[in-house]
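As noted in the main text, all predictions were made from sequence alone. Below is one such record, for FAT4 protein.
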Amino acid sequence: FKEDTGSGRQLILDTATDADSGTNGVDHGSYRIVAGNEEGRFRLNITLNPSGEGAFLHLVSRGGLDREATPTYQLLVQVEDKGEPRRRGYLQVNVTVQDINDNPPIFSQTLYQARVPEDAPVGASVLQVTAADADEGTNADIRYRLEGGDGSGAGDGAGSLPFEVDPESGVIRIRERLDYEVQQQYSLTVQAMDRGVPALSGRAEALIRLLDVNDNEPRVKFRYFPATSRFASVDENAAPGTVVALLTVSDADSPAANGNISVSILAGNEQRHFEVHSSKVPNLSLIKVAAALDRERIPAYNLTVLATDLGSPPLSSVARVNVTILDVNDNSPVFYPVQYFAHIQENEPAGTYVTTVSATDPDLGPNGTVKYS
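Prediction:
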């Protein structure tokens, strides 16, 4: 019987024979199931021959069969003769319940989770999903596939995912290169479908989180004063602590470690006239004056700034900033020589040339323009 057999379906059975005859022969009305029918799934239908000799015996289903619960039955049918004492005979009926596709595949978990480094190679195994089907044969032959979806859950087809699933083993592998900085996790819907007719399916979710690796160098940008300026500048009489430039750093990696950045001046600061200070604002540092400046001695600095993250291994990048020292009027004109000698006749008229004096000022522009009086 198929397990979806309804009540009333019947199969013919062999009837009993007896070497005796007449009143000692088979009592065909005495057939009954005496064992193996505890669930009451079967009954006997006896049709007596109008001649009184022989009968037709059918095993009739009462319905409610379930192969997954009880795949076989061993029924014991008893019959008696009409003699005295009454003698009994037995027939063992082996009933096999045939499978139909009435059970969908069921996953071992409703949610699978895995973590994978973003630099894992294409083809690497991430996790394995497993489903079981209580049916048998092709009704229990399962194939896996990824339904449409992406990390946001919107989904436009499994082709948009950087993962693929082996249809037979359920192993999910990397199909395309991963990038933590583009997407940090993916939610996949995995479908298990049997090969029955009609096919039945089950679903489970697979949550895959990417682990950041240090694959991005820090990036450095400078901001000057005023904001429209294209270079850094500071007065030569600026006090220590004066801010020369703002330095912002960014790192596409996770800030947990790979994105934490230290900043230092690598070159161009041999006189230690500048220093880098971190601020309370994340990833913002300040380049400040650290010692007295003198434009007349060093008019400009070319600083090389090194930014290094704390990843393993650490990555770094350099950036250069030119600092122009602005002149202030901090130098007096100086005569050279400091003493001049001239001779003139006492009767020379006013306006007569006597001598030329010369003074210089190391400052710039108006600060270095000398007037005589």
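Residues 106-211 form a domain with the Immunoglobulin-like fold (CATH 2.60.40.60). The chain has four domains: 9-96, 106-211, 219-326, 331-372. These features were considered when defining construct boundaries for the mutagenesis experiments described in Section 2.9.
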